[in-house]
Design goal:
This protein has eight helices and ten strands. A hairpin with a 2-residue loop joins strand 1 and strand 2. The chain is of the alpha/beta class. Helices cover about 40% and strands about 20% of the residues. It has helices at about 20-50, 110-120, 140-150, 170-180, 195-205, 225-235, 260-275, 285-295, and strands at about 1-5, 5, 70-75, 80-90, 95-100, 125-130, 155-165, 185-190, 215-220, 245-250. About 40% of the residues are buried.
């Protein structure tokens, strides 16, 4: 604008327009957003890089997310009955590893169990979930064994088998891992509380027989599965070559359905299964001895 001393800018003379001030504010906000986005990308990159002590990487959307098919499965249970379950099968499942998900109750928690199964399937596992009987004890273990047999007979399965147990289903998974050679890794999710206290006389000797890697996961806000329970399970698993513990901040027994936590759980199992010697209950004695030697190697 013109003044008595010549031309000066509107800002210098205090005559800056409201429109100019709005433009500068908008440019400042855009700059801050750009800086924030760069920081966020760096954070995601650091998560994806992983590192010692980490369970895994940030999940990324891949073609595998949409390449999973479902199939209902009815199989023979103990005592001549039938058990009903469901399979999640990755389309690229030639020679796939398998995961058996053992739950605490016939109904309930279905949304969470579905999320766990999907996380496992995205990591390439053929996943079987089924509706167990209401009773605990020997019958539940026999049902779990029947489910394991049905899973390993699938044509898609030619890799290692892992077991995942949620809440009291973790006790069934622990017994199964102690008894069955096929299971090469075990994850216990929110396992503890009164069920662990009541089953301790049976669980303690079984836990001492588990000689596969184990992951113990709980939510920090879970009142049914405490940090003391996780430590007790850790101590009971003295024959395991690797026992890792993980806590999901602010979560309860279903881990809030935290996609990152479930991804890391599934990725931990995939990595352990890929490194484990595959063992079958029908192996010859020589093969069994070789498998035992491989599993006990530290």
């Amino acid at each position: 604008m013109a003044t008595s001393v010549g031309f000066k800018c509107r800002v210098c003379t205090g005559a800056d327009s409201a429109r100019s001030r709005r433009w500068r504010s908008a440019l400042l906000v855009m700059g801050l957003v750009a800086i924030g986005a760069a920081g966020l990308l760096a954070l995601v990159g650091s998560l994806a890089a992983g590192g010692d002590g980490e369970l895994g990487d940030e999940p990324r959307a891949t073609a595998a997310d949409a390449a999973i098919r479902e199939q209902e499965l009815s199989f023979a249970g103990p005592g001549g009955g039938r058990l009903q379950g469901g399979l999640l099968i990755p389309y690229a499942s030639d020679g796939a590893p398998a995961a058996l998900l053992l739950t605490d109750r016939p109904t309930g928690r279905r949304t969470f169990h579905r999320a766990v199964a999907e996380a496992l399937a995205r990591q390439g596992f053929v996943v079987l979930t089924y509706r167990p009987g209401a009773e605990h004890g020997p019958m539940r273990l026999r049902q779990a064994t029947a489910a394991l047999r049905a899973l390993t007979r699938r044509a898609e399965v030619a890799g290692a088998v892992v077991a995942v147990g949620h809440e009291a289903g973790g006790l069934d998974a622990l017994r199964l891992a102690a008894d069955e050679r096929e299971v090469v890794a075990l994850a216990l999710v929110s396992t503890g509380g009164e069920e662990l206290d009541e089953a301790l006389p049976q669980i303690e000797p079984a836990a001492g027989e588990v000689d596969v890697p184990v992951l113990i996961v709980r939510g920090a806000a879970d009142r049914g599965s405490t940090a003391a329970d996780a430590r007790r399970l850790h101590d009971l698993l003295h024959a395991s070559p690797q026992v890792d513990r993980a806590t999901v901040p602010g979560a309860g027994s279903t881990l809030r359905g935290d996609r990152l936590a479930l991804h890391r759980l599934a990725l931990w199992l995939r990595r352990v299964a890929a490194a484990a010697p595959m063992r079958r209950s029908g192996d010859s004695q020589a093969d069994a001895m070789a498998g035992d030697a491989g599993r006990h190697h530290r």
